[in-house]
């Protein structure tokens, strides 16, 4: 098919606008990356734009000096892999079950799930629950409570619903069970949404630190990479809300976290994601729709 | 193919998972349901005093959590907890060990959760003990103090009366209090001027607000730009609800530092704008602003941005605020090899307002800050009190503040002196955290310690801060200049204690307006407008309920005075 | 067909749902008793709270003189954020999907969501440097040099500029990340529809208008409705670090207000009351939105 000149203009303008957006998005991050490799005290003078002014690995050295870092990284990788697999599987099954338009009590069941997105009991009851279920100080606390995110389920359900109903119909007529239908028909056609939700869950697993902070005793066994990084950021901050105490703490030398360490923590968290994403990109290309619904 | 990959991934992950679970089941089993175990007395222990015979018996272990942060935070099980030199010395002396847990960051949340779950340790360090006392988690300490805390009693002195709750019991102890009979060193808010500019302008006297105004005008005339061609600001600043320049200025006018109030006639408490000098301070600030002597961004930029774009690029000629806010900057200037960098350190001055009261740049309280409680879960509260008592003796307090003899300091000619290698490191600006890790200093300092006052050898409690011991002329200058202007704010703390919800709500509404609306006065375009804005400012405060709050605060203030005197 | 008959026919289906319902009951509905703390004094000793105080904290909250403007700010900032972020994310998704060069597409998409990972503390610090009126600040210097303005715009120091500023920052921060779902939605559209449209002579814009947008409309409605439910959660960090006394009239939102002035002693109960208020309003909005969507757009989320 020949490309019209109108279309060519469209592509050029499109590409140009995207370039602008890309630059606006990338430059601040590049700046963070660059500052993280700068010497701490010199970074405080500001005005670093494209390249470090005084190259130094001191921020990274300070972080890697944390004696727990390697183990924490293993834990983070483990929880990301396991958590993503478990999460995607549970989400997909539930989303599929809810995508049936004929489901009895459908609206009530959906409402039942949606309420939980907006109401919560707060920190203390949730902590008590975790403790009573013996999930405190247990690796599974990273996997089980977060296995079902209602928002993810709803998104996936929407995608499943938008698939042509004739597909599921024909499978059912052929006598396939629900799970079989899900596995052989629906999933292969839904790679974009599966990849999307997998990405969302994976990133959430990789970047969350609150559960490490609250639901583990701080022991080395279960610390995650993000937990360590946030701890580094928080431990030298002024804690108190009482102004006199805060003033005393500050004047006594409990210094605020050097900027370069903040930048280094962001870099360490984000770079793995950036490196992995291109490999996932191919799943975002459409599913096997071509040819499936002919006739 | 995809299916194969998927199940391969499944198996790999399952393998990891099993390994993890194996490792964690052990850990989980150990700690299941025990967020921070209770005290574990190992073996029998003599209840008698500690300095007795070299006991080969198991030391008593007390558990403690610090929910206020501010101390090095190592993972649970890290050897630092047991092996730090201070802990070792305490174990040797008293046969008592402390098992620490430190919450950094959102410590309050974690503390709430821990207390609600019923699993809390023997001792807790926290900011506000009200709830913990009301829920009877903290035990009364009176008898323990009488029996095992003679030194503690002496050091706190009349402050112990102030720590009594309405039922006559003492439930918590504090740190950083002013010990009975002590005088604090020279700290607090000040006017800081860059020495190179100051000397070039003839080192004028800076004793009154008019002197300051004239000085800033001269700076603007003679030094409009830095060596790099950027604008130099005679005065700059940042916005913060405390520690910011205008709170420093009212401290110089007589409002006890960080208190936001002023003590008026017949001992009544009023919010500072109502002081006779309130209008003058604001109009002074307004004048500086109108004449371009203050960085226009002084009210929008935050502390970090101020440092980065104004202070560290050497664009600030003078500053009014905490002395430490410009202390560290000299090293940056020298590292950056700026011309005349060694002279670019900031000197401290205290100036007075003509209508102002005596400057009150450093507030100290006999009552102290923070709270330490012993909980009802403690099986050996006497051991806890013995430890606390020891930490209030001169030996114990000094140990907590500096670490044991032989590491950072030694006795030379009967006086504690910093070892040269450490002195050099401190002067080079090494991070305090690093030295804390090696010496154990600071870690036990905020239990019941205080660094206010002087030791019997005449030094500061924290040696590295002693201007004489470190031969630090800058610190000596600060000490001399700020020393006379400390304020005993004992009866000004916790003025809202016990207030009902309505009064507290009003106080918070007033607090918000106190901070935010002041800027309308400061940023007015003419003097007349500023005067009008000031009147509106005060009126708004009253409309939000200032009078009711002030009455309550006055009542508490007078009550505290009574308490201090022993009722 | 009667309900019981339906249930019998779908029994496998329903049985499979049971474990998930159970999961919700245990992990979500179980802890919900904590919301009751809004009506009681907080006490460490009892999980359900101490003395009953009824609506005391709600009254304190609603009666505070700052309540109305704080609420207004919250709603405005959230709404602006929701609307502009949605539009931006959709536009970006469409543009990305139209790129033909695979490598270019990958690169732009990858960098587009980098801002999502920069914490608001750092973003605020950057914003303060870029948007400041200081002579070193890039934006004002550029505008001045291009003679578009004759004196610097005080983005950070004037209340009127706060809402546009914070909305722009929100859009920038989330455009890439939010677009991922829309990209997946667009990728799921049957390519045949485009082919037949092109054969009918439809140009790019018509294709986008009549194929792309309607096809992803259910997703848009879904995300928009959920976003509406969070309208009272205008965020904490993003306002907290960019607030200053000058712009406070427009920058104080519920969460920052409660954090700073939340009745320190009774913080837990007060916070619970505010939280409950947010939840109820959020849910009510969702129900309303869903009703209107079903009525006028024929599709809702439940």
Spatial shape of chain B: globular
Average pLDDT confidence of chain C is: 90
Estimate nothing, just give the exact number of structural domains of chain C: 1
Using the CA coordinates, give the radius of gyration of chain B.
27 Å
**Secondary-structure class of chain B:** alpha/beta
- Biggest β-sheet description of chain B: 5 strands, mixed
Give your account of this protein's structure.
- The complex is a heterotrimer of chains A (295), B (567) and C (302).
- Helix content of chain A is 65%, strand content 0%.
- Chain A is mostly helical and 295 residues long.
- Chain A is globular and about 75 Å long.
- The two termini of chain A are 25 Å apart.
- With 567 residues, chain B is an alpha/beta fold.
- In chain B, strand 7 and strand 8 (269-271) form a beta hairpin.
- In chain B, helix 20 (501-516) packs across helix 23.
- Chains A and B meet through helix 4, helix 6, helix 12 and helix 13 of A and helix 1, helix 4, helix 13 and helix 14 of B.
List its traits.
heterotrimer; B: 567 residues; alpha/beta; five-stranded mixed β-sheet; 15 strands; 42% helix; 12% strand; disordered N terminus; C: 302 residues; mainly alpha; MetI-like fold; 14 helices
Structure summarized in a few sentences:
The complex is a heterotrimer of chains A (295), B (567) and C (302). With 295 residues, chain A is an all-alpha fold.
List the helices and strands and how they pair.
The complex is a heterotrimer of chains A (295), B (567) and C (302).
Chain A (H helix, E strand, L loop, with lengths): L4 H32 L3 H4 L14 H7 L4 H30 L7 H13 L4 H10 L17 H13 L2 H9 L4 H9 L4 H17 L2 H6 L9 H11 L7 H9 L7 H22 L15
Helix pairs in contact in A: 1-14, 3-14, 4-7, 4-10, 4-12, 7-10, 8-9, 10-14, 12-14
Chain B lengths: L1 H30 L28 E7 L13 H4 L1 H10 L1 E7 L4 H10 L6 E4 L3 H5 L7 H7 L1 H7 L2 H4 L10 E3 L13 E6 H6 L8 H14 L10 E3 L9 H9 L7 E3 L5 E3 L6 H13 L12 H9 L4 E7 L6 H7 L10 E4 L12 E3 L4 E6 L6 H12 L1 H9 L6 E4 L2 E4 L1 H8 L4 H8 L33 H10 L3 E3 L12 H16 L1 H5 L4 H17 L2 H19 L3
Chain C lengths: L2 H7 L1 H19 L26 H8 L3 H31 L4 H11 L7 H11 L7 H8 L13 H29 L3 H9 L4 H26 L7 H4 L7 H4 L2 H8 L5 H31 L5
Helix pairs in contact in C: 4-8, 4-10, 8-10, 10-14
